[in-house]
TrEMBL record:
PANTHER family listed in its UniProt record: FI19708P1-RELATED, SOLUTE CARRIER FAMILY 17
Originating organism: Ectopseudomonas guguanensis
Subcellular location field: Cell membrane
Keyword Ligase belongs to the record: no
Lineage of producing organism: Bacteria, Pseudomonadati, Pseudomonadota, Gammaproteobacteria, Pseudomonadales
Name used for this protein in its record: MFS transporter, ACS family, glucarate transporter
Family matches, as InterPro entries: MFS, MFS_dom, MFS_Na/Anion_cotransporter, MFS_trans_sf, Sugar_P_transporter
Membrane topology: Multi-pass membrane protein
Superkingdom field: Bacteria
Domain Major facilitator superfamily (MFS) profile stretches: 13-429
Length: 441
């Protein structure tokens, strides 16, 4: 006899998503915590450090569309587990480059950051597939917000810890600690991740709740076909106004993210005169604020949807309001108090979290047959900012000797994201593919 109430297996999947995404962002932001000490230890300038910061982004972007295709072709569990294992090994190896001569150390670090970026590229397209299959529409924004808030939780949890590790054991130890954690988590992930129909603990009531609520519970049982059938849909996605607005908005949104993940601790040390340990603790407050904002954004969006508001209004309103708040980062130029700077950054990243519903939009709008491909394309656009933001800020700082231009750059990207999500994206609806004609509607 079916259970009287839906079970909670989907929340255990959400917990795993949160943990893996936390490790993902801890790995990619580890260099920002170690960056100032590494810069001094290897004798490199701001431009060189900017290029090393950007190395992750180059490969991460290149790997997005192939990563999304791999999910559609082979399923989430094998692709995601292998990716997690490989990027953890590569993170661990970064801890040993300090033993090399300076030139070789810089080159090796750049190459390892490239490889980490490529290996971790499937992460967020995989998260989108898992969320779409495990959560009904009215719970999807909250689930996405919680898993995405891991990017802030990673900094809140690991920035103080990694600051202490750098100060007491050296910058190389950061990568060794995080690499070992990732390897341990990859074995837990292998055991715990299943599709809804394949999960050994799911009850019939919860399965019915997912299916009736719009969850794509058979997604893991479907395969996207040959590579050719996938690639020909790229043009169709890029001709959809809704998808274009989502992709462009995510690029601008991620410019804020990658300032925080790369240059923000360096800004606190070099422009504000904080110690590395102090910068690690100071970075935690904006991260916590971003995490809170992210969860509230999802709750607000799903709450509006349950109260009868349109899907378009329920998704757009938190995004527009949040990203307007993010532009407050520019005000840091005009204040002298370190406490005020941290407070403004906390406000900006609360807004950034509130407005981070891009992956929810991907799950809401992408054609179900190529959700992984669409997620890969979305993350390709978004993570071009992982390339441009560290380099642009590196040149701005090197040229002016100040971080003021960098803060203006970040604030302008927040406003451009408002335009993209608020105006370019029209009515939010799922794009459907006509299998016979290969057209989208």
């Amino acid at each position: 006899m079916p259970d009287a109430k839906p079970g909670r297996v989907r929340y255990s999947i959400l917990l795993m998503l949160f943990l893996v995404t936390t490790i993902t962002f801890a790995d990619r932001s580890s260099l920002s915590v170690a960056g100032s000490a590494m810069q001094a230890g290897l004798g490199i300038d701001a431009v060189t450090l900017g290029y090393i910061f950007s190395a992750f982004g180059w490969a991460y972007v290149i790997g997005q569309i192939p990563g999304g295709w791999l999910f559609d072709r082979f399923g989430t569990k094998p692709v995601y587990t292998l990716a997690l294992f490989i990027w953890s090994v590569l993170t661990l190896l970064q801890g040993f480059v300090g033993w090399l001569p300076s030139t070789w150390a810089v080159t090796s670090m750049f190459l390892l950051r490239l490889l980490v970026g490529f290996a971790s590229a499937p992460c967020f397209p995989g998260n989108a597939r898992i969320t779409a299959s495990w959560f009904p529409t009215a719970e999807r924004a909250t689930a996405t917000a919680i898993s995405s808030s891991a990017q802030y939780a990673a900094t809140a949890l690991f920035a103080p810890l990694m600051g202490w590790v750098v100060q007491t054991m050296g910058w190389q130890s950061v990568f060794i600690v995080l690499g070992c954690l990732g390897l341990a988590l990859s074995f837990v992930w292998l055991k715990q991740l299943h599709g809804p129909r394949q999960h050994p603990r799911i009850g019939t009531a919860e399965l019915a709740h997912l299916e009736q609520g719009g969850a794509l519970i058979d997604l893991e049982g479907q395969r996207g076909g040959s590579g050719g059938s996938q690639w020909r849909y790229l043009g169709l996605l890029l001709r959809q106004r809704t998808m274009i607005g989502i992709y462009l908005g995510q690029y601008c949104n991620n410019a804020i993210t990658y300032f925080f993940l790369t240059w923000f601790p360096v800004y606190l040390v070099q422009a504000r005169g904080m110690s590395i340990l102090g910068a690690g603790f100071a970075a935690a407050l904006p991260a916590i604020s971003g995490c809170v904002g992210g969860v509230l954004g999802g709750l607000l969006s799903d709450g509006m949807l349950r109260r009868g508001h349109s899907l378009t209004l329920a998704r757009k309103l938190p995004m527009v309001l949040g990203l307007l708040l993010s532009s407050a980062v520019v005000l840091c130029i005009y204040v002298d108090s370190d406490a005020t700077v941290v407070a403004l950054m906390a406000l900006a990243f609360f807004g950034k979290g509130l407005g981070s519903l891009g992956w929810t939009l991907v799950a809401d709008t992408s054609p179900r047959q190529i959700l992984g491909l669409s997620g890969g394309l979305f993350n390709t656009f978004g993570n071009l900012a992982a390339i441009t933001t560290p380099i642009v800020i590196g040149y701005l700082v090197s040229h002016s000797g100040s971080f003021d231009g960098a803060l203006v750059y970040v604030g302008l990207n927040a406003l451009l994201a408002v335009v993209s999500f608020g105006l370019i994206v029209g009515r939010i609806h799922r794009v459907e593919l006509d299998a016979a004609s290969g057209s989208a509607s």
